[in-house]
């Protein structure tokens, strides 16, 4: 398989070397390798090519109920042994964790389609440069300025343990992000795909340029509550924030909006599914502990149905492990990693035509929690905000500040787009991947306006 950094045999050797040098009751090893190639552009010209190659080993050693963990990027024989010995030594000195349930046993992994595409991993700087040139050339012809990046990357994940766990998967990702700017307005467009051949450069270019032309000279619009059409970029932000609440640990900590509400209505007619077998969403059959991942319907037509679990949280709370562990960390033990909002039947144009008076939002920017339990988030609109009147885009407006409960906003879901857009972090895991549509919501609260 060309383009893979190390290969399954080499990652297995690294993991098993770590386990061999570990001295404790139990141990596991997580190996992540990546090759990221990035072409940045600004002012309609390429200004930087970056290539990075990295491999990281995380060793976890258990002695009784004490757990020591060390991460290293020194994966030579001595570096691996040193990390394993350090984790073993640490496990003898850290405080006991009385709730620790031990490392998970090996379980059969279901089949999943490959998330690795050779031509993505093998994309050359010249091929990325041609993609950039097509975008920048058309921006220049329209008197606009484009900035952003095109990246292609390949990744490998391997998990092994003294309980006989072994899991390995490679993946690839191609990504294009651009902001196109005029004298008084800007627009954003983005595309992600496992296969670089699926990146629609004509589409992303036309979207950014045409929206930028329309976004010039934005006008004032009073803050307040408006019906909105959210482009997938804005919906992705909502999905990302809510995903962190759809976990067993969030319910356990009392910070989930679905806590105590499973089986009850929590949003409008929206369905959230975490599907690790979705071929368009970087499929992977296991989590970062090598446990089989399950397809989970989290919210079904607005009704909270389930949350995801890792091994420790599941054991502690008496629930089944759904195979959604993240790399061991003290902050977020599990999360939906292949989240999808199920599509509706509307085109983007249908969503806009159905609005008598409202706001079209391209994306949200600088969003932060205000109150996680109530899913209240604050942030700003950016790169293309427009007034809709009588089913048509009337004119661009200056950006808003907002403070809004995301799940309450989804409570007013009026229509859902039929086209799903992929948003992903490079290795389809820590941070997650999601496929989301555009949406029309009955009400969104804008609390202030910006100068631009």
Strand content: 35-45%
Helix content: 10-25%
Strand order of the largest sheet: 3-2-1-4-5-6
Element order, helices and strands?
A: HEEEHHHEEEHEHHEEEHEHEEEEHEEEE
Structural class: alpha+beta
Shape: globular
Mind describing the biggest β-sheet? 6 strands, antiparallel
Specify the number of helices: 10
Gyration radius over CA: 23 Å
Low-confidence stretches: none
Count of β-strands: 19
Quote the distance from N terminus to C terminus.
49 Å
Mean of residue pLDDT values: 96
Explain this structure:
It is built from ten helices and 19 strands. The protein is an alpha+beta fold. The strands form three sheets. It has a six-stranded antiparallel sheet with strand order 3-2-1-4-5-6. Helix 1 (8-21) crosses helix 2 (77-91) and helix 4 (125-141) packs parallel to helix 5. The radius of gyration is 23 Å and the shape is globular. The relative contact order is 0.14.
Identify the notable features of this structure and list them briefly.
452 residues, alpha+beta, 6-stranded antiparallel β-sheet, 6-stranded mixed β-sheet, 22% helix, globular
């Amino acid at each position: 398989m060309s383009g893979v950094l190390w290969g399954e045999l080499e990652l297995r050797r690294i993991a098993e070397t770590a386990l061999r040098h570990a001295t404790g009751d139990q141990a596991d090893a997580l190996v992540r390798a990546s090759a990221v190639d990035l072409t940045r552009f600004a002012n309609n010209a390429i200004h930087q090519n970056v290539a990075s190659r990295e491999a990281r080993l995380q060793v976890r050693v258990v002695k009784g109920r004490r757990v020591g963990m060390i991460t290293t990027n020194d994966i030579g024989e001595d570096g691996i042994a040193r990390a394993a010995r350090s984790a073993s030594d640490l496990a003898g000195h850290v405080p006991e964790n009385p709730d620790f349930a031990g490392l998970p046993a090996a379980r059969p992994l279901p089949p999943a389609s490959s998330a690795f595409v050779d031509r993505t991993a093998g994309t050359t700087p010249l091929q990325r440069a041609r993609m950039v040139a097509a975008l920048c050339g058309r921006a220049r012809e329209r008197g606009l300025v484009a900035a952003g990046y095109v990246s292609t990357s390949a990744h490998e994940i391997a998990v092994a343990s003294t309980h006989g766990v072994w899991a390995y998967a490679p993946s690839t990702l191609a990504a294009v992000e651009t902001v196109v700017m005029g004298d008084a307005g800007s627009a954003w467009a983005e595309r992600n795909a496992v296969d670089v051949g699926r990146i629609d450069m004509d589409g992303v270019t036309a979207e950014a340029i045409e929206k930028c032309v329309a976004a010039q000279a934005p006008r004032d619009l009073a803050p307040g509550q408006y019906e909105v059409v959210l482009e997938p970029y804005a919906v992705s932000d909502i999905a990302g924030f809510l995903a962190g609440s759809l976990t067993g640990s969030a319910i356990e900590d009392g910070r989930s909006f679905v806590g105590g509400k499973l089986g009850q209505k929590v949003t409008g007619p929206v369905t959230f599914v975490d599907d690790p077998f979705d071929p368009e969403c970087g499929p992977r059959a296991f989590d970062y502990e090598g446990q089989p991942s399950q397809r989970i319907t989290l919210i079904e037509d607005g009704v909270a149905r389930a949350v995801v679990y890792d091994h420790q949280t599941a054991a502690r709370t008496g629930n089944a492990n759904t195979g959604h562990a993240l790399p061991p960390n003290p902050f977020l033990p599990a999360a939906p990693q292949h989240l999808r909002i199920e599509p509706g039947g509307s085109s983007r144009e249908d969503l806009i035509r159905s609005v008598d008076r409202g706001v079209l939002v391209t994306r949200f920017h600088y969003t932060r929690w205000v109150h996680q339990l109530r899913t209240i988030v604050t942030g700003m609109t950016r790169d293309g905000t427009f007034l809709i009147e009588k089913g048509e885009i009337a004119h661009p407006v200056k950006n808003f500040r907002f403070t809004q409960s995301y799940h309450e906003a989804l409570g007013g879901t009026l229509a859902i787009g039929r086209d799903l857009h992929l948003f992903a972090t490079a290795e389809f895991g820590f941070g997650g991947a999601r496929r989301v549509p555009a949406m029309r919501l009955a009400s969104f609260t804008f609390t202030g306006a910006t100068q631009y």
